[in-house]
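Deliverable D5.2: sample structural annotation.
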Amino acid sequence: MFKKQNGITLVALVVTIIVLIILAGVTLMIALDNDGIISKTKEGAQEYKDAQTNENAQLEKVNEYLHNNTNF
C-alpha cells in the first residue's frame, strides 16, 4: 500500500543547520577574538616591521664601520 520514502527528514535537516551555525559561531570567535588569529597576525606583522628596521640599522652600522676602516 504505502511506498517507503527515502530522503532527509526535517529533523535531520534542522539538526544539521544548528550544528553548522554553532561551528560558524566558534570559528568567528576564534578569528575575531582579542587573542584571535587576526590580532595575532597584526602583532606578527608589527614585530616583523620592527625587526626589519632593527636589522637595517645594524647593517648600516656595519657598512659605516667597513667604509671607515678599509682602504678601498
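Annotation notes: The helical segments are 10-32, 37-69. The chain has two helices and no strands.
The annotation will be released with the project's public dataset once the embargo ends.
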